[in-house]
Amino acid sequence: MKKLLVFLLIIPLLYSCAGTGSKTIPNTSVSNSSTSTLYFSRTGGYVGGGVLASVKVNGVEIAKLGTKEYVQHTVSGNFNIKVSASGINSLAMGKDSISGVGSSGSKHFYIISVKTGLFQGAFEITETTESGFQQSH
To answer: Which of 2-11, 20-29, 54-63 has the least mean pLDDT?
Structure first.
């Protein structure tokens, strides 16, 4: 019975660390002439490493990124990005947001990191260049 209880407690903890992003850096040389492409990279680190970053574009969740994971998404026109913690850990983590204007064929690159304070942490999203994105891993 004790082993079953331990098993039931460990499974949700392990599951909460698995993100939906990719460990492979997306190919940024491909361009879509009719939409804008958004590229996201989550940095690694000890602080906030077990917390998934929920990435929402225009109110729709596109990924839950773990550390050192990537995702890309296409949009038409203006966009609003919101990054927050996913799951039970969302109570202890702050969130961040950023907006942009998408034009046909444009590419936008973002790095998601954890900013720490004395007794708190918060996600931070920063726009960067293509070369900065490539170097973020």
So the answer is: 2-11
All domains of the chain in start order, with CATH? 2-134 (2.60.40)
Q: How far apart are CA 47 and CA 74, in angstroms?
A: 30
Backbone φ, ψ for residue 53 (5° rounding): -95, 115
User: Running DSSP on this structure, what letter comes out for residue 66?
Assistant: -
Q: Which of 72, 12, 15 is nearest to 42 (CA)?
A: 72
Q: What is the pTM of this model?
A: 0.82
* DSSP character string of 18-41: --SSBSSPP-TT---TTSEEEEEE
